[in-house]
Amino acid sequence: MKITLINLLCVFCWCSLQILALPDTILIGGIFDDRDDVQEMAFRYAVEKINMDTRTLPRSKLSAQIERIPADDSFRASKQVCKLLRSGVAAIFGPNSENTANHVQSICDAMEVPHIETRWDYKLTRDAYSLNLYPYPPSLSRAYYDILMQLKWKNFVVLYDSNEGLVRLQTLLKEKSWTVTVRQLPDGTDFRPLLKEIRRFQATHIVLDVSQDKIHSVLRQAAQIGLMREYHNYFITSLDFNQVDLEDFRYGGTNITGVQVIDPHTPDIKEVVEKWKFGELRYGRTLSDRFTKVTTEAALMYDAVYLFAKALDDLDNSKEINIDRLYCEGDKAWQHGNSLINFMKWYGSRPHTNSNDGRRGGMYTLERNYTHFSQVQASGLTGPIKFDTAGFRSEFQLDILEMDQKETLKKVGTWTKYGGANYTRTWAELVDAMELNLQNRTLIVSTALTPPYTMRTESSELLHGNARFEGFCVDLIHEIAAIRGFNYTFQLVADGAYGSKNRETGEWDGIVRELLDHKADLGIVDFTITYEREEAVDFSMPFMNLGISIVYKKAQKKSPSLFSFMSPFSVDVWIYMATAYLGVSVLLFILARMAPDEWDCPYPCIEEPEELENSFTLLNSMWFIIGTFLCQGADIAPKAVSTRIVAGIWWFFTLIMISSYTANLAAFLTVERMDSPIESAEDLAKQTKIKYGCKQGGSTYAFFRDSSIPTYQRMWSAMSSARPSVFTVSNDAGVERVAKADGQYAFLMESSSIEYEVERKCDLTQVGGLLDSKSYGIALPPNSPYTSSISSAVLKLKEDGKLHMLKNKWWKERKGGGRCQREASSTKTSGAAELGLANVGGVFVVLLGGMGIAAFMAVCEFMWNARELATDESASFCDELSNEVKFIIKCSGNTKPVRKRAPSTPEEPLFTYGSYGANYGYSQRK
Q1: How far apart are CA 525 and CA 498, in angstroms?
Q2: What residues does 61 pair with on adjacent strands?
Q3: Band (34; pLDDT cuts 50, 70, 90)
Q4: Which residues, in sequence order, are CB contacts of 390 under 8 Å at separation 6+?
Q5: How many Å apart are CA 456 and CA 463, to the nearest integer?
Q6: Distance (Å, rounded) from C-alpha 396 to C-alpha 143?
Q7: Would strands 538-539 and 779-780 be described as parallel, antiparallel, or unpaired?
Q8: 119 vs 102: CA distance, rounded Å
C-alpha cells in the first residue's frame, strides 16, 4: 500500500513538472540578409551545440527558424517577422541591415518578444525588448583613442567610407591635443586620387575606417602610389582586422595596427571551425575558404544564442512559462518576454567568482552584486558577456595587433575599459622588430657637398653610385650600415641647402624638404640639431658635439718698434723713474748743502783754509744719481749720514729696477709679439671696422636671428644691416672671403668646420671660445621606425672610439690635414730665437744720439773758449779759432802751453790754462 501511494505521488509530481516545464522544442527565429552566410551558419551551429549540451537546456531543444531577406527590404522583413511570431518563436535574432533591423525591433517591442542583435548600432538608447551584443560604440571609440594615445600619434588622417565612421571615431575627432584631417573615400573602386592628395601633404599616420571588403583594396592602392613605406603607420578600426590578407604588405616595412575581439588561434575558435567543417561535410555541403574564418559578428551570434539559452533555462527554473503564438494583427503580447530579456541583461551583469574565461583564461569581477542569481559564468567566443545598467555591452576586451614579418599579425597588447591600452611587448622585442625591418633594405641618404663631411672622390676613372663620394659622413653611414645590415645609396640634395624654414610660407627647403617628402630615408652632413628642425623631422643621437666660433685671419707677427728696448716698462713707469731721478738729485743737492760734513777744504795743503767747498753741486748731484743708476759709480762720494742714506736707498731702488728691466727685456726681445685686433665675439660687437657674417639660412644664422643675448643681438643687427651683405651661400665661400679680406672680415661657423679649415689654411685661426653648444645628428623623416636603431649604432661607434678615429682621419690625415702643424714644427729650433737689428736698433740710435749731443757740446765749448781767448788777447776770433783747430789737427803731444793774459785788474788771475791743460781750473790771488 505504501509503495502504491509513493508511486502515485511520484507520478503526480512528474505530471506537475511536465505542466510547468518548457515545451520539448522551443522555436527561435533568425532573420539574415542574403550576404550573411557566415552569421547564418554560426546561428545554426550554435543551436546544434546547445541541443547537444544538456546542461544548457536540460528539458528542451532549440529549433532554428531561419528566414533570408534582401538587405534593406523593410516590407519583406516585416512579413517574415510576423510569420515567425505566428509560429510561436521565443526570440528573434538579426538582421544586420539597419533599416530592416529597425522594423523588426519595433514589431518585437509591440509583441514583447526579445530581439537580439549582433550589429554595430550607433544609437545610444536601447528599446525595452532589444539586446545587442556588439561592443558599445562610445566604449569602442574610447578604445581607439587610448590606443592612439599609447602610440603617441600627434596628427593623422581619418579615411572613412560611410557616415557611421564619423560616429565610431567621435572621441578621436573631439580631442584637441592632436591634429586630425578627415577624408571620405569616393564611390567606386579607384581611391588613388584621394590617396595622392594625402601623400602630398606628407601624411604618415592614417586611421582607416572602412568596410571589411575595402581594407585590402585601399592598402593595395596606397602601396602603388608610395603611401605604404616604412615610415607610414596605419590603424585599422575593423574588429575583423585578423581576417584581412596582409601578406602583400608583410615585408614592406609599413606599421599596420589593428584590434580584434576574437582570437582565431584560441582552442575554442579552432574547435568551432572544425565543427563547422565536419557539419558541412556531414550534410554534403562544400565549405568555402571564407567560412573557415570566424568573423566578429558570427562569434557574437554564436554567443547570443548561448546567452539566450542560459537565460531561458534560468527563467524556466524560477517560474512557470509558456510560449504562445502571436499575431501582428492582434493586440496580444508575450507575457514572459520582459522577464526573459531582463534575465539576459542581468545574466551578463552578475558577479563571477573563480570563473575561467575560455578565450583568455582571465578572472573577471563586476561592481554590481546580484546575489539572488546563480553564480554561472557568461563567457563565450567574444569573452565575458557583460552589460551595464542601461543594457549596453560597454565592458569588453580587445587585442591590439601589429603586422609582423615573422607572424604576419602579432598580439602586442590589450585594451580594457578600466585598464586602457596596455602594450605587453618588451622593449627588446620592439628593438628586434625594428632591426629586422631594417635589415637588407636600401635606404636613400640625402647629403650635400661640404668638406670633409661629404666630398667627391678624386679619381681619374669614371665612378658610379656611392663610389663617387667620400668623407666623414660617407664613412659614418658605412659603419652604421655594417652594424644594422642595410644597404644605402647617396644622393645630393637638389638645392644644396641643409634645411631652413621660410618664415612667410612655412615651407622647408634642402635636406629637410626631401625627408618630409619621403624622397630620402636619411639626411647626413654637418647637420645641426635645432629645435625648429627637431619639430619637423627626427634626429638620431649626436655623432659630434661643437659650437659656434669665429674664423679669422691669423694674427701677423708684430714688427718690433725702434725703441722696443723700452717695452719692459710702461710709459708710466718711465715717467715715474725720470721724476724720481730729478727728485732724488735735487734732494741730494739740498741735503749736501745742509750737512756740515759735506763742506771740505779744496786744497788739502792748507791747514786753515779761508773757504770750504761742497762737491755736490746741482750738476754733480745729477751726475752722481745717473752714474749710480747705470751701475757705473762716480768720482765723488757722500760723507754725511743723511746723504749716505739717500744714496743707499737710491742704490736699492736702482737694484730692483735694473734687475726687473733686465729680466723682462729678454722676453720682450726674443718672444714674437702677435698683433690681433679681435679676441672674442665681444670685440667684434664693440667695433665697426671689421665686418663679420655667417652662412645664409644656416643654424648659425638662426642662432643670431633668434638670440635674446644683447651682445648677439647687436651682432645680428650689424650683420643684417651691412651693405654689401656679409652673409655667404656656403661655409667655403665664407672662409675664402676671410682669407682674401686681409683682416677686414671674420666668419662665424661651427667649430668643427673651423678645425678642418685651420688645419689646411695656415693663415687662418679660430678666435675666442664657443658661443653656444650644439650637436650634429643624422636626420630622418618624422616618426621614422629607424630612429632608435640608427641612434644605438651611433652610440656603439662612439663607445668603440671609431668616431674619434674617423675625425682624425678626415681632419688631420687626409686631404692635406696636419700641414700647418708640420710647417710649424719644422721652423722650431732648440735654442733661443736670434735677435735681429730690428730688436736692438733703438739702442744704437740712442748711442748715436748721445755721441752726437756730446760732439755738439764739445764744439760749443771749443768755440766758446776760442772766443774768450780772442777777447783776452784782443785778437781776432777767427785767428784764435784757426790756431786752436790747427793744434787739434796735429794730434801729437798731450801738453799745451799756458796762454798768459794781460793783467787788467788786481783781482784777475795772472795766467790761464789752455783748453786741455788741467782737470780743474782755479784762481790764484796776489
Answers
A1: 8
A2: 25
A3: confident
A4: 125, 126
A5: 10
A6: 10
A7: antiparallel
A8: 12
What is residue 914's predicted lDDT score, i.e. its pLDDT? 44
Distance separating alpha carbons of residues 861 and 351, to the nearest angstrom: 135
Q: Is-contact 120 164, C-beta < 8 A? A: yes
Q: What secondary structure does DSSP assign to 562-576, as a single string?
A: TTGGGTTS-HHHHHH
Report, as an integer, the average pLDDT of 805-830.
72
Contact (Cβ atoms closer than 8 angstroms) between residue 500 and residue 509: yes
Cell of 680: 672674442
SS3 180: strand
**Angular region, 488: left φ>0, alpha ψ -120 to 50, beta rest:** beta
Give me the pLDDT at residue 795, please.
93
Asked if pLDDT for residue 679 goes beyond 70, the answer is yes
How far apart CA 194 and CA 187 sit, in angstroms, is 11
Quote the CA–CA distance of 787 and 785 in Å, as a whole number: 6
- pLDDT exceeding 70 applies to what percent of the chain? 81
Beta-sheet pairing, 745-750 with 548-553:
antiparallel
> What's the confidence (pLDDT) of residue 489?
94
From the list 304, 224, 216, 227, the residue with the least C-alpha distance to 258 is: 216
- Characterize the bridge pairing of strands 779-780 and 383-384: unpaired
pLDDT, one tens digit per residue, over 268-319 is 888 877 877 777 777 666 665 555 678 888 889 988 998 888 888 888 887 7
The secondary structure of 100-163 as a DSSP string is: HHHHHHHHHHHHT--EEE-S----S---TTEEE-SPPHHHHHHHHHHHHHHHT--EEEEEESST
Sign, CA torsion 657/663/667/670: positive
Q: In angstroms, rounded to a whole number, what is the distance separating the alpha carbons of residues 707 and 713? A: 6
Antiparallel, parallel or unpaired: β 544-546 and 774-776: antiparallel
Average pLDDT over residues 752-758: 87
Closest CA to 513 of 534, 526, 498, 528: 498
Other beta carbons within 10 Å of 126: 17
**What mean pLDDT do residues 344-370 have?**
43
Sign (positive or negative) of CA dihedral 127, 129, 133, 139:
positive
Phi, psi for 166 (deg, rounded to 5): -65, -35
Distance of CA 367 to the CA centre of its chain: 47
Which residues lie below 8 Å from residue 115, measured CB to CB, with a gap of 6+?
91, 92, 104, 105, 108, 109, 127, 129, 130, 131
C-alpha cell at 553: 685671419
CA atoms within 13 A on the CB side of 612: 9
Dihedral of the alpha carbons of 724, 728, 734, 737, in degrees to the nearest 10:
-30
Model confidence pLDDT, tens digit, residues 611-641: 777 788 888 888 888 888 887 777 788 887 8
How many residues does this entry show for the chain? Answer: 926
* Cell numbers that stand for 527 in this block: 647637420
pLDDT value, residue 854: 57
On whether the CB atoms of residues 603 and 612 are closer than 8 A, the answer is: no
Which neighbouring-strand residues pair with 252?
Answer: none
Nearest by Cα to 678 from 583, 789, 584, 766: 766
Q: In angstroms, rounded to a whole number, what is the distance separating the alpha carbons of residues 300 and 320?
A: 29
